[in-house]
Amino acid sequence: MEKTLYVVHCIDTEGPLNETLEATFERLKHIFHLDLKPSKETLIKLQNGELDLGGKEESVKTTLNPHFLNYKNSWPLIDELFNDCLSDKFRNRYKDSFGNGWVYNWHCVDHVDFDYNPRGREMGYHKIFDYVSKKLKDTNSSKDSLHFHYHPHPMVKHAHLCATRWLGPTDKLFQVLSRRIIDRNWFPAVNRPGFQVTRPDSHWFLEQFIPFDYASLSTEEETHTEQFDLSAGRSGDWRRAPLTWVPYHPSHEDYQVPGNCNRWISRCLNIGTRFANVNLFEVERAFKEVDEGKNVILSFADHDFRDFRKDVEEAYNLLTTVQKKYPNINFKYSEGAKAMREALNLKKDNHCNFKIKLNKINEKAFVLDVESDKDIFGPQPYLSIKSKKDEYFHDNFDFQIPKRKWTYTFDEETLPIELVDKIGVAANNSIGQTSVEVYDVLSGKITSTKHN
Which helix (H) or strand (E) holds 449? Predict the structure, then answer.
């Protein structure tokens, strides 16, 4: 009996990235606490493992792999890469067991509100999202999909540094999502955490709105303790998460432990980077689990600012090598939400349909009524508001019927309706099908968008 292994290639889509020689050594100091004078000669010696680093030689050598340092540092270079990797010629070079070409999942970030940008990241709302959207349309890449990726803001607001919180005073999570809804009629069903970081604030936020999370970086052992930015759970902490390719519902108190939450977390290792990379052992684990009758998704992630064509080739070679041991198992490239539905045998459903009405209570108060024809994922839809001054806000609804009916009052305690331009309402159903409604206050027109 033939069985299927679902394969999901996630790409943290962040646009061009530039790293000078001096910046490489600055990063080396941050990761390994090695204070070395920047020079091309020293870099080559480090790449060859020729300097005594007190046991850190191999880890440093991996970090400084010439492939990892070959950044796409301009939009023309990104464009050249996309033109090739999105082509049928390239995709069909690496067909799955069903004769289908490679599939990508584009997790698009917005770099916004940073004070210092030494790596030349593309700044602005929708910049990367719009580029990929147009590229997929122009290349007829209908099997690929757009998903969510968010970089928490460090307190110093430097674009090249990591952070762990989503809901701090400098963070722009609500701005990004509110603008995606109102400006682009789009809301995510699939997440990839920036810097592989999940914490209670992001865990509980996702539990409200986003059903699928390609996040777990659990590995057999903690092999990167000499890398300071990854040690002791500082970034990408998945030490307690299951060592399996079977997605799980997390616990409310600990996202790494299976529990009773509603969203699904899938294991997603790296490829083409300095730690936690997918390998032959892990691919064989996935095939073995499928053979045992488990609901398996094999997923891995890398970045668009590196030449991920090499990673596609590596992953394909791993898949075809292991498949020879398991001839009864097919592997299938998949979009992230679809893989969850099919691998987990989630019950088929229809999109949520919303009834939205703005009712005048008196001269100073208007009430927005929102009703869904079926239970949504999470307790409430995401509410976004755009003012006539081009300000964007997010707020909570008032609950009338849990998971079905909500209201929101526009008055002096929130925002008077005469100051409101558009109202956005977005939600997923239990299997990650998305419904977005944008209400134009002046005209009363509602734009409805549904996507899978």
Answer: strand 446-451
One-letter identity of residue 253: E
Strand runs labelled E in 352-432? 354-362, 365-372, 382-387, 392-395, 398-401, 405-410, 420-428
Q: How far is CA 283 from CA 183, 317, 323, in A?
A: 40, 11, 9
Q: How many CB atoms lie within 10 A of CB 146?
A: 20
State the pLDDT confidence band at 229, using cuts at 50, 70 and 90: low
Q: Which residues contact 245 (CB under 8 A, 6 or more apart)?
A: 266, 267, 282, 285, 286, 289, 294, 296, 297, 298
pLDDT tens, residue by residue, 50-106: 999 998 998 899 899 999 999 999 999 999 999 999 999 999 999 999 999 999 999
SS3 3: strand
Q: Are 342 and 333 in contact (CB under 8 A)?
A: no
What are the residues whose beta carbons fall under 8 Å from the beta carbon of 179, sequence distance 6 or more?
125, 126, 384, 392
Q: Smallest Cα–Cα separation from 112: which of 126, 123, 122, 128?
A: 123
Kindly tell me the sign of the dihedral angle through the C-alpha atoms of 159, 163, 168, 174: positive
Contact 432, 340 (CB under 8 A): yes
Nearest to 282 by CA among 267, 264, 295: 267
The tokens 């109102």 sit on which residue?
Answer: 182
Q: Exposed (0-12), middle (13-18) or buried (19+): which is 47, by Cβ within 10 Å?
A: middle
